[in-house]
Specification:
309 residues, 54% helix, 5-stranded mixed beta sheet, 2 domains, elongated, two-stranded antiparallel sheet, alpha/beta
Length: 309
């Protein structure tokens, strides 16, 4: 299956939040950065360094010009790669990409590989390329950020927006092809995003990235959620509410079906859904939902809901 949607997700979130990406992945640049000017995507250089993906990997390359206080722009190569194994060919690719980019304008270049795939071994990603031939020796070292090198707890405690981006990438790997897991993780990430207080532009960019990377627009996700993600014109907590109810209801149906197999499908489903409706109501009360909203999504009588208090 093509992974072009992964490439596009990364290109979009990086290009829409360049300064945030630079500060997150290469913080040493921050002190030298001229913030009176904006970083610029270099489309010509980007086309020149573009590479074809080989089997088992996906690339998303961005060339960026970063204004410095010295008055000389620094070129930054952001190379995002979906690795599913420890790739011995990455160092050579990074060297080739770096050379192509530096050869364009004869300016200094900083190269960064962001590795977002599963790691199948305990080896650290290679960040050095060497080559030697009869006295001629090349030594090239580049920056590496591996999503496997940071814990979920660290990312949740990091207020920078790319901590949410990396967390979403990790959740994508954890969920795999399980639609319900993707919905649950999307709920977690939206709640985290809601509490961060980012401006609207950043919040919408991250919301789009989460939706793309977790494939939240798949047909097996509630159509109402899909529409809300696509519109991007509602408060984030409304999308959270939809996914919350969807996941909780599906879980209740699954438990009801299991009981129905033991004691008769119809009776088990009825009891399972009734018990789950009460559990959902409890959870929604704890989350601050009104009795009217709880009645709408659970079908319980308002009197029963008020009695739960």
């Amino acid at each position: 299956m093509s992974k072009n949607w992964i490439d596009k997700s990364w290109r979009d979130v990086l290009s829409e939040n360049l300064d945030d990406a630079i500060a997150f992945f290469i913080p040493a640049i921050v002190a030298d950065r001229d913030y009176s000017k904006k970083p610029e995507l270099l489309s010509n250089e980007q086309a020149a360094i573009g590479s074809d993906s080989n089997k088992g990997a996906r690339y998303a390359d961005l060339a960026v010009s970063i204004p410095l206080k010295t008055g000389v722009d620094q070129r930054l190569l952001l190379h995002v790669e979906q690795q599913h194994a420890h790739d011995q060919n990455l160092p050579l690719r990074m060297y080739q990409l770096h050379y192509r980019m530096s050869d364009q304008r004869q300016l200094p270049v900083t190269s960064l590989a962001i590795l977002t795939g599963n790691r199948t071994d305990e080896l650290e990603p290679i960040s050095i390329y060497t080559d030697e031939c009869y006295g001629t020796r090349i030594l090239f070292e580049y920056n590496v950020y591996d999503v496997n090198s940071v814990t979920e707890e660290e990312l949740k405690n990091d207020p920078r927006i790319f901590a949410v981006v990396i967390l979403a990438a990790k959740k994508m790997l954890e969920a795999g092809g399980r639609a319900q897991e993707r919905g649950k993780f999307a709920l977690e990430l939206l709640r985290l995003l809601q509490g961060r207080g980012y401006d609207d532009k950043r919040a919408e960019s991250l919301q789009r990235f989460i939706g793309l990377i977790l494939q939240i627009k798949k047909d097996d996700i509630d159509i109402r959620v899909k529409e809300k993600w696509e519109m991007l014109s509602i408060p984030i907590d409304e999308a959270v509410k939809e996914i919350h109810v969807r996941v909780a209801t599906e879980q209740g149906m699954e438990r009801g079906m299991e009981r129905g197999m033991e004691r008769g499908m119809e009776k088990g489903m009825e009891k399972g859904m009734g018990e789950k409706a009460l559990q959902i109501a409890h959870s929604m009360l704890d989350d601050g939902f009104s009795p009217e909203a709880i009645q709408k999504y659970t079908g319980l009588d308002k009197e029963n809901i008020l009695a739960l208090r």
